[in-house]
């Protein structure tokens, strides 16, 4: 038998209000995101007890009290980079083995507080001086028209390496096989891509190939003509 989800006091208040407004069990269930039978039992419980609180003794006792949840929320908002595993370790540090909570419990309680796991937005890492320069540039050009911006040529470049040099590693892992970059004598093959775009013209990419790549291209052309 599938266990029914326990409703919060706030959800029970809303169910009663919607029912008094003439909503059907099914429609209320769609709004609360529960089955119509849960709505029915909730209304019966409210009528019997005269309160919106859950009946005492029903369901397993939650390991995190309201105070624990508030503390959990503070830990999460104080450092947004903390994962559920980090928060679990902090919460369980002072708990006995039988009182320890799972990562799933941590995640559920955070979700209930409106704190859901999301991929962080990305932006360039700028020094304070560069941030001020960008702000000054924006203020100096805030009155520019579309025609003014069409006269600007925007450019960018990026170098793609076959044998990349960057590895994420911990202290003491410099010679770990997973952190070693395989090298060749000529430094590795790469290609530089440069492009520009403006309001009057489209995107114009241009590839500046390495010497090795140029030799390969010439060789391929020559072989095709033999």
Automatic annotation (TrEMBL):
It comes from the Eukaryota. One of its GO terms (molecular function) is DNA binding. Signal peptide: none annotated. InterPro entries: Homeodomain-like_sf, IS30-like_HTH, RNaseH_sf, Transposase_5, Transposase_Tc1-like. Residues 3-41 form the Transposase IS30-like HTH domain. GO terms for biological process: DNA integration; DNA transposition. Pfam families: HTH_38 (PF13936), HTH_Tnp_Tc3_2 (PF01498). Residues 70-143 form the Transposase Tc1-like domain. This is Transposase Tc1-like domain-containing protein. It comes from Amphilophus citrinellus (Midas cichlid). The lineage of its organism: Eukaryota, Metazoa, Chordata, Craniata, Vertebrata.
């Amino acid at each position: 038998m599938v266990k029914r989800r326990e409703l919060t006091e706030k959800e029970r208040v809303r169910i009663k209000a919607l029912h008094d407004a003439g909503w059907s069990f099914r429609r209320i269930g769609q709004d609360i995101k529960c089955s119509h039978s849960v709505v029915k039992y909730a209304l019966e419980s409210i009528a019997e007890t005269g309160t919106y609180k859950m009946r005492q003794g029903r369901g397993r006792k939650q390991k995190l009290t309201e105070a624990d949840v508030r503390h959990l929320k503070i830990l999460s908002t104080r450092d947004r980079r903390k994962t559920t595993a980090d928060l679990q370790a902090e919460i369980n540090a002072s708990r006995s083995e039988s009182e320890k909570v799972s990562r799933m419990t941590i995640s559920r309680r955070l979700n209930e507080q409106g704190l859901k796991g999301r991929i962080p937005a990305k932006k360039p890492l700028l020094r304070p001086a560069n941030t001020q320069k960008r702000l000054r540039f924006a203020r100096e050009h805030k009155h520019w028209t579309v025609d003014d911006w069409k006269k600007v040529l925007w450019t960018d470049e990026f170098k793609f390496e076959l044998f990349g040099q960057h590895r994420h590693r911990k202290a003491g892992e410099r010679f770990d096989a997973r952190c070693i970059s395989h090298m060749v004598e000529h430094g590795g093959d790469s290609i530089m891509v440069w492009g520009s775009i403006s309001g009057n013209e489209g995107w114009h990419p241009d590839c500046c190939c390495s010497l090795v790549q140029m030799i390969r291209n010439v060789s391929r052309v020559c072989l095709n003509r033999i």
